[in-house]
Every structure is written in C-alpha cells, then in structure tokens.
Amino acid sequence: MSESPDTLLMRRALALAEQAWREGEVPVGAVVCDASGRIIGEGANRPIGSRDPTAHAEIQALRAACLHAGNYRLPGATLYVTLEPCAMCMGAMLHARLARVVYGAADPKTGACGGVVDLPALPALNHQTRVEGGVLGDECGELLRAFFRQKREAARNVRPLSPESP
C-alpha cells in the first residue's frame, strides 16, 4: 500500500530532523510544499550552530519557501514539521497565511497548537490555518526521545575533575 502525501512529506521532515541531530541540534525538521504538493522550502533546527534563537526548523523552511515564492505570504501552502510548533513558529506560520500545518509529535511543554496554548484556535486572529497533528507521531517522538536519552547518558558519563586530578 502506498503512503499518503502527508506521510511522505513528513518522512522528508524526519530526514531533515536526523540531519539536525548529526549537527548537534535538537532533531526537528520541516518542509513547506505549495498547493500542488511540490516542496518549496526545507529546514532543520539550527539555533545552536547559528547562535540564533529564531533558527528553528519551521522558520528555516518558511524563509526558504518565501524566497522561492518571491513573497512573504504563502497562501495554499502546507508546512510539515516533526514536532508541534512553538508560539514563535506558529505566529510566523499564521503571518505567512499557510493553509495547513501538519506536525508529528505533540509538545506538551512548548507546543502552541494545543500543547500549552492553541494559537490557531483563537477566533480573533485575522487568518485561520488548519492544523493536523500526529502524522508519524510515534516515529517523530521516538527520534526526540532517543536524542535526549543520548544527551542524558553523555552528561552522566562526564565526571567532574577532583582537586587532586592532574
């Protein structure tokens, strides 16, 4: 059985998340496609390496898509991201006038699509974006859990030097 377009595009976002991990970043990846399903922007988390708190995968993908489109608005576009977007990213997506946002794993600590707050559900906003979560949610969540598990194990293996150590 063939996979749905949403699943295929989320798999590409997962590949970008794995790239972020290899570069020492929290493994989050994002892809923007136009109304026909063609990829017009991609991004992997880069805040650590770029020393830029706004360099989330979603922002990177939006910047690339806007450059491709020649416009700061992306009507009809869909953004796929492996982790529920934070408030900053969701705000940017609303300003870009995306038609849809599709995410993998829920984020109960910083998620802005129902995790902590639900920005797209605010009726006062002048643009509404459809949000769908859980696409490859288990795979996306496991990638993040494995990353943080590895970080915790590495931190446990670092022993502080004692005053007697050379």
Question: Would you write up a description of this structure?
Answer:
Helix 1 packs parallel to helix 5 (137-157). The chain has a five-stranded mixed β-sheet with strand order 2-1-3-4-5. With 166 residues, the chain is α/β, with parallel strands linked by helices. The protein has five helices and five strands; from the N terminus they run H-E-E-H-H-E-H-E-E-H. The termini are far apart. Strand 1 and strand 2 (39-44) form a beta hairpin.
- The helix/strand order is HEEHHEHEEH
N/C terminus separation: 62 Å
**Helical content, roughly?**
25-40%
- Give the neighbour order of strands across the main sheet: 2-1-3-4-5
Sheet-strand content, in percent, reads 15-25%
Principal-axes geometry comes out as globular
Compute the average pLDDT.
Answer: 94
How many β-strands, per DSSP? 5
Estimated structural class: alpha/beta
Q: Unreliable runs, pLDDT <50, ≥5 residues? A: none
Q: Which oligomerization state do the chains in this entry correspond to?
A: single chain
Radius of gyration: 17 Å
Largest sheet: 5 strands, mixed
Helix run count: 5
